[in-house]
Amino acid sequence: MDFYDVISYLAWAVSAILLLWIVVDAVSVSKQYDEEFLMSSREGEE
């Protein structure tokens, strides 16, 4: 196994960790807020 194989496996590991983080965060946000709040826009309200 040469250097580039190790780098390739590390890159795949990092991408898998990021994917897991995104999924966990999405589930967490989904539990904290309802769908109506997430889809609303408050740009004009001050």
What distinguishing features does this structure have?
46 residues, single chain, mainly alpha
Nutshell version of this structure?
The chain has 46 residues and is mainly alpha-helical. It has helices at 3-32, 35-39. The protein has two helices and no strands.
The residue-averaged pLDDT reads 90
Percentage of residues in DSSP E strands: under 5%
Total number of strands: 0
End-to-end Cα distance: 59 Å
Major beta sheet summary: none
Poorly predicted parts: none
Percent helix range: over 70%
Structural class: mainly alpha
Tell me the Rg in angstroms. Answer: 18 Å
How many DSSP helices? 2
Order of helices and strands: HH
Shape descriptor: rod-shaped
Q: What would you call the quaternary organization?
A: single chain
**Count of individual domains:** 1
Structure description:
This protein has 46 residues and is an all-alpha fold. The chain has one domain (3-39). Helices cover 76% and strands 0% of the residues. It is built from two helices and no strands. It is rod-shaped.
Topology:
Blueprint: H1 3-32, H2 35-39
